[in-house]
Amino acid sequence: MIIAHVSDTHLDGGPRALRRTRLVFEHLRRCAVDVVLVTGDLADHGTADEYAAVRAELVADVPVLMLPGNHDDRAAYRTALLGGSGDAPINQAVRVGGALFALCDSTVPGQAYGVLGAATLDWLRTVLAGADCPVLIGLHHHPIPLHNPLVDGIGLRDADDFAAVVRDSPAVAAILCGHAHAGAAGTFAGRPLLAAPGVVSTTRLPWTTGETLTWANTADLDGPPGVAFHVLTPGGDITTHFRTVQE
After folding, report:
1. pLDDT (tens digit per residue) in 136-186
2. Helices marked H in the chain
C-alpha cells in the first residue's frame, strides 16, 4: 500500500500557496498511490474562502484524508469539509484498503502548540481496541523533539499520555504528523514517527546556518515543496521515501 503524505498547504487566498499546492497535487495525481494524507494546516486563517480552495485543490482519484492543524478553525473546517457543525475535536477513523487511519485532532483553539486531551485519547483507545489491521495514527503536532528549538516549543504537550496509548496497542504501525514544515523520521513509543515536509515552505535547521533563527527568518520560501511516500506492508512494516516536487 502506498500512502502519499503531505502537510501544511496554508491556503490563504494568495497565489503562492495556491501554486505550490497545485504543483504537489498535480504530481500526486500522476503517481500510483492508494491514498493521500494531509496532516493539517490546510488553511492559513480558517476562513470559508480558504476552505473552498481546500475543497477545490486537495483532490485526487484516490481517497484524500485530512485532519486539522493549529491554523485551521474547527467550526469552519467541519462546516466546509464535513458538512456538520460545532467546534468539538475532529477525530475520524477511516479504513482504506488494508489499513486503518486514526486521524486525531491535536489542536488547541487559539494556540500554536498541541494537546490531544483525555477525550481524544479515550476515542483513540477505542479505535485501537477494535482494529483488525495495521493502524496509522495521524495528527498535526509532533510528539517527539525534532531538535529545532522554534518548532519544538510548539509541539504536542501531552506526548507522555499519547505514548501510553500507543504502547498498549500492537496494531499501531506508525505515527504520521506535520506542523514542522520539514520531513523527519524518529521513534515514538517504540513505533516509527514520520513527519511530512511542508508544502508552503521548509523550516531551516539551526545547524545548517550561522544565523540565529527566529520566526521571521526560519522559513525557506524558495526551496521546492516536499512529499513523503510511505510503503506499508500487510504485516504493518513501513518504509518511507522523501521527495521534492520540482516545477
Report:
1. 999 999 999 999 999 999 999 999 999 999 999 999 999 999 999 999 999
2. 15-29, 48-57, 74-77, 117-129, 149-152, 159-167
CA distance 231 to 2: 5
| Per-residue cell: 84 | 456538520
Question: CA 75 to CA 85: how far, in whole Å?
Answer: 6
pTM of the entire predicted model: 0.97
**For residues 69, 70, 75 and 77, what is the CA-based torsion angle, rounded to 10 degrees?**
-30
Cell of 235: 504485516
Residue type, 237: D
- Half-sphere exposure at residue 192, Cβ-oriented, CA atoms within 13 angstroms: 19
Angle at 5 between CA 156 and CA 130, to 5 degrees: 70
How many alpha carbons fall within 13 Å on the CB side of residue 119?
7
Please report the sign of the dihedral spanned by the C-alpha atoms of residue 234, residue 236, residue 242, residue 247: positive
Which cell is 42 given?
490546510
The neighbour count for residue 108, using CB atoms within 10 Å, is 16
CA distance 75 to 87: 5
Complete edge-to-edge strand list for the sheet that includes strand 226-232: 64-67, 35-39, 2-6, 226-232, 238-244
Beta bridge partners of 38: 6, 66
Output 202-208 pairs: Cβ under 8 A, ≥24 positions apart.
202/226, 203/148, 203/150, 203/151, 205/148, 206/148, 206/149
Note whether 111 and 140 are within 8 A (CB): no
Q: What is the pLDDT of residues 29-60, one digit of tens each?
A: 999 999 999 999 999 999 999 999 999 999 99
The 3-state DSSP class for residue 55 equals: helix
